[in-house]
Amino acid sequence: xxxxxxxxxxxxxxxxxxxxxxxxxxxxxxxxxxxxxxxxxxxxxxxxxxxxxxxxxxxxxxxxxxxxxxxxxxxxxxxxxxxxxxxxxxxxxxxxxxxxxxxxx
Length: 105
Fold this sequence. Notes:
- This protein is α+β, with helices and mostly antiparallel strands and 105 residues long.
- It has one domain (3-93).
- Helices cover 26% and strands 11% of the residues.
- The chain has three helices and two strands.
- The protein has helices spanning 43-50, 71-75, 80-93, and strands spanning 3-8, 30-35.
- The chain is globular and about 40 Å long.
- The relative contact order is 0.16.
């Protein structure tokens, strides 16, 4: 079973913040997600459902991602400069990897 969600974005998300942060793809109009509750290995199915939309996507939102992601998939969630800055901060302040993120930078 798959649950497909289409969310209209914009509003506060699309505004540049007073204090810079690492929210990527502020210009996206919609978020398209595919979820399969309780299913173990559905990555191939999800990719096939999302494939027709690949040409019009601008990236990924990590908070709607489940399961392990590749480095390229994680980088797609951030603007390149933000990903580089986050990686540098992680290396500086958590070089021993004591903090466990949901998705490795």
